[in-house]
Amino acid sequence: MLSHSMPDFKVVYEEVKVRGKELVDKVGELIREGNVRRIIVKDEKGNTFVEIPLTVATVGVIAAPVLAALGTIAALFAHFTLGVEKAEPHETHGTAPPQEPPTA
Fold this sequence. Notes:
By secondary structure, this protein is an alpha+beta fold. It has two helices and four strands, in the order E-H-E-E-H-E.
C-alpha cells in the first residue's frame, strides 16, 4: 500500500499598505506567489472594496479582469490596505507523520 502524506498548512493573515498607483502591481505580484488564498482590498478608512478568493484553478482565468477593475478603483483613492490570506506549511520540528494501521 502506498502512503501519501499531504503537507500540513496553516493560514496566515497579513495586511500590506499600498498607494493607489501600486495597487494593481502589488495584487498581481501576490496572485503570482501561488500560496495566496484570498486578497481583500480596503480603502484607508477600512471599507472593503473587493474580496478576491484565489485557487490554483482560477488564478489564470480571473487575473486579467480583476487587475483591470483594480486599476479603476486605484484611480479613486490614494491609499489602500491589502488583507492577504496565505497558506504556509507548518514546521514539523522532527515529528514523525502519523502511521497507518497494519492491514491483516
